[in-house]
Design a protein that fits this description.
Elements: H1 2-27, H2 45-66, H3 69-74, H4 78-103, H5 108-120, H6 128-145, H7 149-166, E1 169-177, H8 184-197, E2 201-208, E3 213-221, H9 226-235, E4 244-249
Antiparallel strand pairs: 1-3, 1-4, 2-3
Helix pairs in contact: 1-5, 2-4, 2-7, 4-6, 4-7, 5-6, 6-7
């Protein structure tokens, strides 16, 4: 993940260096001024429409790569199965930065410093998707600080809707260990049947007979919560088939 940030930052720096260098030299002899339009930016309807179309294009093109048919055929782990969401979020992040570079070239240095801060200070999160959201919100904050509230509001609304769509279904990894040695297959079938009865779509199932373990990766609707599933597994599975349950959510 860190290498991705480094490549992104380096590429933007190379693109923006000429304009940034000129801006720095000129600003040394000028009074500080705001580079953004402030609240008047909301009156620039043409820019807002153009920016929205740019973000939509980034989503569409990012989704074409993210949801390539080969990906579904080769995805095996929870992180790989959920990776398309991360690709799309990063495509939108790149589009937001690009919009700011094209429209407000002289402020790109501040944006790069903000991204550099994310690289420098490590944040421990359970998934790459959450890391992408942190970068997203950082760009929104930078937009506010750069006196670009219209960009910040547009990015917030677009990001809110995008995350709502991407997270319409939640992916889980369910590890069930310490299963009864003589009934591993029956126990796996019981867990699978219970999940499917509650509108869960099984993406992957792996049995490790020697370790008395079975692992499910499945998706469920936003209406079914982690707690609901936990209660079902505790109360609806026969005691003779129960194992030790561990969850991973993305």
């Amino acid at each position: 993940m860190k290498s991705v940030f480094n490549v992104l930052t380096t590429s933007l720096l190379l693109v923006a260096m000429p304009a940034w260098s000129q801006g720095v030299s000129e600003s040394l002899f000028q009074d500080p001024v705001s580079m953004g339009e402030g609240w008047h930016g909301f009156s620039d309807v043409g820019f807002l429409v153009s920016a929205t179309l740019t973000l939509l294009l980034a989503v569409i093109l990012g989704a074409i790569i993210a949801y390539h048919p080969r990906h579904e055929q080769t995805a095996d782990t929870l992180a790989e199965i959920e990776a398309p969401k991360v690709y799309i979020i990063y495509a939108v992040i790149g589009a937001i930065i690009g919009i700011m570079v094209v429209k407000y070239g002289l402020v790109v240095g501040f944006v790069l410093f903000g991204i550099g801060g994310l690289i420098r200070f490590r944040t421990s999160l359970r998934s790459a998707s959450l890391t992408g959201r942190i970068i997203f919100t950082t760009l929104i904050g930078l937009s506010c600080g750069l006196n670009l509230p219209h960009v910040a509001v547009l990015a917030t609304v677009f990001g809110y809707v995008l995350i709502y769509i991407l997270d319409a279904s939640v992916a889980y990894r369910l590890d069930i260990s310490s299963l009864p040695a003589n009934h591993i297959v029956e126990a796996a079938a019981a867990y699978r049947a219970l999940l499917e009865q509650n509108d869960c779509r099984i993406v992957s199932e792996k049995k490790a007979l020697g370790k008395k373990r079975v692992t499910f990766i499945f998706r469920t609707s936003k209406h079914t919560t982690h707690r609901d599933l936990q209660d079902l597994l505790e109360t609806q599975i026969d005691g003779s088939l129960k194992g030790s349950v561990n969850w991973e959510i993305d």
